[in-house]
Amino acid sequence: MLLQADGVSKSYAGVHALRGVSFELRAGEVHALVGENGAGKSTLIKVFTGAVAPDSGRISIEGQRVEENTPAKAHALGIAAIYQHPALFPELTVAENLALRLEGRSLWRPIRWRARRTRARALLAQIGARIDPDAEVRTLSMPEQQMVEIACALGAEAKIVIMDEPTASLPAQEVESLFRAVRELRQRGAGIVYISHRLEELPQIADRVTVLRDGCSVETRAIADIDRATLIRMMVGRELSAVFPKSEVPIGETVLETRGLGCRASALRDVNLTVRAGEILGIAGLVGSGRTELADTLFGLTPADRGEIILRGQKQTLHSPADAIRLGFGYVPEDRQRHGVIPPMPISENTTLACLTRFSRGGLIDFKLEREVASDLAARLSTKMASIFAPVSSLSGGNQQKVALSRWLATAPKILILDEPTQGIDIGAKAEVHRLMVELAGAGMAIVMISSELPEIFGMSDRIAVMSHGTIAAVLDRAEATQQRVLALALQGTQ
Amino acid sequence: MTGRYGREISTAIALAAVLVAVAVAAPQFYGARNLQQILINNTPVLIVAIGMTMVILVGQIDISVGSQFAIASVVAGLAAQTGVPIFIAGLAGMIAGAAMGVVNAALIAGAGIPSIVVTLATMVALRDVLRWTTQGRWVQNLPPAFQWAGFGQTSGEILITLITSVLFLAVAWALGNLPAGRALYATGSDAEAARLAGIRPARVVFFVFVVMGLLTGLAAALNAIRFSEVQSNAGAGVELKTIAAVVVGGASITGGRATLIGTLLGVLLLGIIGPALTFAGINAFWEKAIQGLIILAAVVADARGKARARVVPNR
Q1: Are B104 and B272 in contact (CB under 8 A)?
Q2: Which of A225, A411, B76, B260 has its CA 20 to 30 A from that of A303?
Q3: d(C-alpha A408, C-alpha A354), whole Å
Q4: What is the pLDDT of residues A140-156, one digit of tens each?
């Protein structure tokens, strides 16, 4: 047994990322690791590579227990990780990049350029990559950079190679040459942990598969014994446990419609959707499927270069968030710490920032009105704070999110876009955010909610749009949507 | 936590300490004429520093203000030579400053080039254009109404002080009370978050650099009328003096935090060191060293404040 994990648990601030996960990797096998967003795949990898210390459980490599794993230790033990976005130095050549990882660190030994180049060429040849060792990495395509990473793992004689979604950004024809390289590694007796959302490619490359769900390892099977539908069922396989306050509200007329919306810069294409007053449209999809890109385009952050945005029957062009706000959009972005609020600014000022002119009398800020409105909203959202003048950075994550929301309540938007509105906030705050969403929809607001949590999507949405590869794969009604169906749509390959 | 204005209070304490030390070591420093002189000498620096406070507040820097100052001085002088009213000559200096501000603004906010690079280039280029056109000659043969705007020294000094004070109060008030002031703080704190809140950071930055040029032009004109001739190398080192004053006044060099009262304290603190040393009979060479130490202390305080902010719980 090359690598063995037993009962590995890890929690972040009370949220269980891993709960007693067990996993084993044999020499000479490709072991696929699959699961939904947030199932714990990334955390498990981080435990293997020493980036994260588990709270409990043990890891052994070739029967030897690994105590206090660190990245340096993992490296020394022969673990190499290859990520979706290669971690190479773009300004250095291929040979130099390989040398940085493979050669000993000595500041005073002269560089043997010829040997360095020969070695790089040999490694690249072994995995069948036709790449010039003297090319600067920034001139290489993404697949070529992946190949350099693999050559690196080969050169390091890594026993355990972890590949995190290596094919996510590869076109189909490049995938095969990557697989050839992976098979080469396997032939040499390395064990490969292979993470992918492309379930259809697993039979071609993997020997066994382990399914993670909600931080637990569900099952490990030989890939030959399992089909795609079963895999998806294993990945979902849970009941909707949380209770959502979603109630039926009368759905009004269409507020927002897009026709063939696209944006070359963010690879968003051909998005057709409608949102009606009082409706919550859930947007599901994998990370990287274009959900946030869609929100950014609707809000004018990355303006659309194709298609139309129609608001209450009128075609509109949005060049900036300022345009979007004027037209009645509100947007709580995913990365609230950086962009949803301005942390050093007081709660009151954060609340009024998006509609300052409304809080002004004769061109001057009306501090009394600002304080009143901000206090009212904080009370309505039960934001826990020392004072309305405290900086937002002094609040907990959930309360910061409430301030981000209150900013848009102050503008009274017609359409509110929420990107992962409850990510990383505690259960209590989460329930309050959900309750508020229902209240707003009841008051006739159209809400677009992006979420990686399927229970939240199912619990809160009237309709569910599933995104995949930069476009909407399907829009399902609440009644016809099942978790299997949503996941199958999200996971579908490029047509 | 020392509260929201902790940095300004620290600077005020440092200023008070220096004033007390001078009172003990060289009480003659407190002569009315000397204080007046220090005040009037520092008015141009303060006016430029007001603009620099806004520039640093939005997370930018302008090191071309010294060159802008020189050109605006010469423009005002040349305008006065033609015999136009002194008020018009001053306006010409301000327009010249604003025009140079537009150049910086277009390159920084329009083309998106980092302000340190743009203003380094304009600093050198503007200085050389001036040297080439004036051949180093001063602007002489100015009409008698030029110096002190024809009011005589006492009234002229009062006029300059008055203009500076009104400007200072107006900008300080605007930063706190106008939505535009709030937009400056938001842009400097996090331009992307400001954009998401519907502010247009590029416009904010453009505006700030134009105002910077305008204020530099005003400072240059008010400085020029203190003399009977206009030097073609006026304003040398103004960029360093003003950036130092803003930083000493508690501004964060990375933007988002600055107050005008802090800048005033910074200008005063750095401005009295030189005269105070002279009165205390200490070699004036120490002036730069002490100023350097004060700046260093301010930057360290800024960095420590940020490090503390980073470990605030519940992020």
Answers
A1: no
A2: A411
A3: 7
A4: 887 788 889 889 888 88
B178 in A contact zone (CB under 8 Å): yes
Which of B178, B196, B256 shows the shortest C-beta gap to A344?
Answer: B256
Q: A219 in a domain, yes or no?
A: yes
Decide if B194 and A301 are in contact by the 8 Å CB cutoff: no
Determine how β-strand A280-285 pairs with β-strand A446-450. parallel
Enumerate residues 6+ apart whose C-beta is below 8 A from A315.
A308, A309
A170 and A75 part of one domain: yes
Same domain membership, residue A441 and residue A337: yes
Q: Select from A184, A202, A236 the last residue of a domain.
A: A236
Using CA coordinates, name the residue in chain A closest to B252: A344
Q: What is the mean pLDDT of residues B215-220?
A: 97
A353: nearest CB among B186, B309, B315: B186
Within-domain flag for A326: yes
The pLDDT assigned to A242 comes to 53
Give the pLDDT score at B2.
Answer: 47
Amino acid at A133: P
For B158-195, what is each residue's pLDDT tens digit? 999 999 999 999 999 999 999 999 999 999 999 999 99
In a domain, A224, yes or no: yes
CB pair distance less than 8 Å for B192 and A338: yes
Q: Within this chain, do residues A284 and A191 fall inside the same structural domain, yes or no?
A: no
* Same-domain pairing of A172 and A270: no
DSSP B198: T
How many A-B residue pairs are in contact by the CB < 8 A criterion? Answer: 79
Same domain, yes or no, for A175 and A283? no
Q: What residues in B contact A393, CB-CB < 8 Å?
A: 309, 312, 315
Residue B313 pLDDT > 60:
no
> Would the pLDDT of A495 be above 50?
no
Does residue A244 lie within any of the structural domains?
no
Same domain, A299 and A227: no
With a pLDDT cut of 70, the percent of chain A lying above it is 95
The parent domain of residue A47 ranges over 3-236
Q: B161: distance to nearest CA of chain A, Å?
A: 27
Work out the pLDDT band at B258, boundaries 50, 70, 90: very high
Contact A149, A82 (CB under 8 A): yes
ipTM: 0.80
Query: Which B residues 230-289 touch A at CB under 8 Å?
Result: 256-257
Write out pLDDT tens, residues A35-88. Answer: 877 788 888 999 999 988 999 999 999 988 988 888 888 988 999 988 877 889
Across the interface, whether the CB atoms of A339 and B314 are under 8 A apart is answered no
Q: A429-453, pLDDT tens digit by residue?
A: 788 889 899 999 999 999 999 998 8
Higher pLDDT, A455 or A303: A303
B183–A356 CB contact, under 8 Å: yes
Contacts of A180 (CB under 8 A, 6+ apart): A127, A128
Which domains, ranges and CATH numbers included, belong to chain B?
A: 6-304 (1.10.3470)
Q: Pinpoint the alpha helices (H) of B225-259.
A: 238-248
Q: In chain A, how many domains are there? A: 2
Please report which confidence band the pLDDT of residue A357 belongs to, taking 50, 70 and 90 as the band edges: confident
Whichever domain contains A355, its CATH number is 3.40.50.300
Q: Are residues A336 and A189 in the same domain?
A: no
User: What is the DSSP annotation of A366-433?
Assistant: -HHHHHHHHHHHHHHTT---S-TTSBGGGS-HHHHHHHHHHHHHHH--SEEEEESTTTT--HHHHHHH
The C-alpha atoms of residue B90 and residue B74 are separated, in whole angstroms, by 11
Chain B contact probe: residue of A296, A298, A353, A358 with most B CBs at under 10 A: A353
Strand partners, A360: A365
Residue B40 has pLDDT above 70, yes or no: yes
Per-residue pLDDT tens over the stretch A117-148: 999 999 998 888 889 999 999 998 877 888 89
